[in-house]
Write a structure and sequence with these properties.
22% strand, 2 domains, 205 residues, alpha+beta, OB fold (Dihydrolipoamide Acetyltransferase, E2P), binds zinc ion
Length: 205
């Protein structure tokens, strides 16, 4: 089975508990001496088998291998990847089964991660996620005061538009933003604007 390690914490001694997102489920697994295992890292795509599925305790990971990506040696890209993966963990951690969409979204992102600004990939992936969950607020009114938006807007968590003065946040051009909402592509944004959008995503899915 394949899955992304989207959460990892130390159990007793050097054992680790890994939260793994596979195409159909999200589960915690135990790994003895996992802290010594270089494969078991946050954000890694692992191939694995399990044992102890019928026991009273958490199932254990075995036959671990790691599907590497070229960008894993790039410290800055890895940092952004960890941030992205952590948002998935916060968003999905209380579920048992998940739709394949989330695994595919992460896999798509990982395959592009070395070739583009990863923060741009985060923003575009997040639009896909909002559309998938039916949560994209593509409406011409402010979420706070419910009156029409102007040419400049600010963004709340979950890319919800509002007046800049209603949420005390810096402005974005509305036409550009709505173009982004429609196309899902952020190629018309400068890196500085991507930074703004990325910070909004980092507030949580
Ligand atoms: Zn308002």
């Amino acid at each position: 089975m394949k899955g992304f390690v989207i959460g990892l914490h130390r159990a007793r001694n050097e054992d680790m508990i890994a939260l793994v997102l596979s195409p159909t489920e999200i589960r915690s697994y135990y790994r003895f001496f996992g802290a010594r295992h270089s494969i078991l890292q946050l954000g890694h795509l692992i191939d694995f088998e399990t044992e102890g599925e019928q026991g009273h305790f958490m199932p254990r990971l075995r036959s671990l291998s790691h599907m590497g990506f070229g960008w894993l040696h790039d410290h800055n890209r890895v940092l952004v990847w960890h941030n992205f993966v952590n948002r998935f963990r916060d968003h999905l951690k209380d579920l048992d089964t998940v739709e394949r969409f989330y695994y595919d979204l992460l896999l798509d992102a990982a395959l592009k991660w070395g070739r583009q600004n990863p923060k741009r990939i985060v923003c575009e992936s997040y639009i896909e996620l909002l559309k998938f969950e039916g949560r994209l607020h593509h409406e011409n009114f402010c979420h706070i005061c419910e009156t029409p938006l102007g040419e400049q807007v600010a963004l709340m968590q979950a890319f919800i538009p509002a007046h800049t003065e209603c949420i005390y946040a810096p402005p974005l051009d509305k036409e550009k933003l709505f173009r982004f909402f429609e196309s899902g592509r952020a190629t018309h944004y400068e890196d500085s604007e991507i930074e703004y959008l990325y910070e909004v995503v980092m507030k949580g899915f």
